[in-house]
Every structure is written in structure tokens, then in C-alpha cells.
Amino acid sequence: MKIKSLIFTFIISSAVLLTGCSSATETISDDHLSNGTASQETVSTTEPPSPTEEVPADSTAVSTDSTTEALVSSETDPSPTSTTTQNSKSETTGQTAPPQTTTAPHVHRYTSKIVAPTCTSGGYTLYTCSCGAQYTDNHTDALGHDLGPWVTVKEPTLSSEGQRQAVCRRNDHIEVQSLPRLDKIDAFVQEVVELVNQERSKEGLPSLTGVTALHSYAATRSSELVSVFNHVRPDGSNPLHDVLQLGYRTAGENIAYGYATPQAVMEGWMNSPGHRANILSPNFSYIGVGCYQKGNTLYWTQIFAG
């Protein structure tokens, strides 16, 4: 088992750019209009007229219906003992139809209302008439969620998934994503970071923050150790120069191979003065850890930055 350490400090003064419808109604009241003739027959019995009396040839009777004119013709039997029967027939001249009415056609008059788009629905202009008719126009797409930074709320393990979430800046919507379960290598990387921060805590030092870019670079360096186990990249360049190119001012590296567990490699590093100095340096604030397996051998890298 072998371990090596390297610390390289490089001062860089740099500025970082942070980054009716139309309805004419005609009413004709023909359901109450009588098209026939009302018939009324009156039968009366009268005494024979006195010889000195004059019997008029015609008599007129008026029906109780004020709109009906009754025409009565009377015929007298010359016999003084006979009974005179009067036949009366009423004739209806018809009713006057009510006046026709016409409704003016409805003309739509719309008021507009602008409905703003949201994260999940599009915007549009809504037009509404007093009669209830509506239509929309000027449609726009939904805005989509404006998510803030992702925060891990549950770390994944070898046996269970993790979880991270982000909050929308517009409506406080919380977006949740699952983090896949760790494989052995990922779990080892996470455990090394935790062990480093435990050692720093014992010395009253702040914890180091894991950075994705540094983890990725440390994984690359671990794979390179298979061919060149040294603080030099296979092309001969200094590995810490690439760290400084990411915008950091200081950088350090610990490497090792042959250790089977995170606890074992951390024990080896802490027992070496140079490696221990990197782990407990107050000049570092960030860390990346890489682990690469070749056959049954694990190659380990720690990248420190500040």
C-alpha cells in the first residue's frame, strides 16, 4: 500500500464573472280567433195579437255578447189561437287581431380581460358579452417553473434512494426529484468526505463542501493512477494546475491505492504528516473525492481547493 501527498499554492488575482341573434317576432293571436259563426236560437211563446194591435213585420233582438249582432226574423201565424215561434240566428262578425310586435336583433358588445400566464398554464385575452357569449384570443405559452437551487434533503445510500428539491421563485411550488441509490464507489466517495469533516471537526475547523466538478476531476485522477501513481498526470502536467483553472486560489491532492474501505484509506492518510496536513488545512474550503477500481484494487484521490 502506498500513499503520496502534494500541496501547491498559487495566488491568482482574478475577477470571476458570476456569474339575436337576430329575432324578429311576429305575434298573431289566432288561437282565440273565432272563424265560424256563433249560432243562437231563441224560442218564445206569445199570445195572439189583439185585432186592434199592430204586429210589426220585423223585430230585432240584441245578444248579450256586445260584439255580436243578432238578426231575428219573426213570422206570425194568422190563426189567433196559434203559437208564434220566433227563430233567431246570431252571426259573429269576428274579433280584432292584436297588434304585431317585433324584437330588435341582439348586437354583441364585448368587454376584454387579460389573463396572465402562469408556470403551468398559458395566458390569453377573454372577451365576454352581456348575453353570456365568450371567446378567447392572444394566447401565450405557460411560463414554466423558475426553480431555485436544488437542495438535497435525503442522501442516497446503498439500500435506498435519496431526494432533492427546488422551490419555484414565482409561486412557491416545490419540485421534488429522486436520487438513485449509490453503488459501492459512490458510497465510498460520500463516506470519505464525511470522515474528512469528522477529523476537521475534532480540530475546530469548518467542514469542507463537496463540489461536483472536483469529484469528477478526482475520479479522473484515480483512473490515471493505474498507469502513473504519482502527483503527475500521464501527460506530465501538474494535476493541481487544472484545479486552479477552475477559479480556485489554492489546491492540494492526496492519493493512495490498495486500501479496501474508506476507513482504511483515511487511517493511512491521517497517519502520514503530509496527507494529514492537507486534510486539516485551514486554507481549504472545498473537496472532491475519487475512487477507481481495477481488478480487486481500489485507487483513491482527494482534491482540496480554497
So how many helices?
Answer: 5
Uncertain spans, ≥5 residues at pLDDT below 50? 9-92
Quote the average pLDDT: 76
Structural class: alpha+beta
Nearest-angstrom radius of gyration?
55 Å
Helix proportion range: 10-25%
Query: Tell me, what's the shape?
Result: rod-shaped
- Number of E strands: 13
For the biggest β-sheet, the strand order reads 1-11-13-12-10
Distance between the termini: 29 Å
Q: Per DSSP, what share of the residues sits in E-state strands of 2 or more residues?
A: 25-35%
Pattern of helices and strands: EEEEEEEEEHEHHEHHEE
Largest sheet, in brief, is: 5 strands, mixed
How would you describe what is shown here?
Helices cover 18% and strands 25% of the residues. The chain contains 5 helices and 13 strands. The strands form 4 sheets. A 5-stranded mixed sheet has the order 1-11-13-12-10.
What attributes characterize this protein structure?
alpha+beta; 306 residues; 3-stranded antiparallel sheet; 18% helix; rod-shaped; 5-stranded mixed sheet; 5 helices; single chain
Sequence-ordered SSE layout with sheet pairings:
Blueprint: E1 2-9, E2 69-73, E3 87-91, E4 110-115, E5 124-129, E6 134-137, E7 151-154, E8 162-167, E9 174-179, H1 184-202, E10 209-210, H2 212-224, H3 239-244, E11 250-257, H4 262-270, H5 273-279, E12 286-294, E13 297-305
In a nutshell, what does this entry contain?
This protein is α+β, with helices and mostly antiparallel strands and 306 residues long.
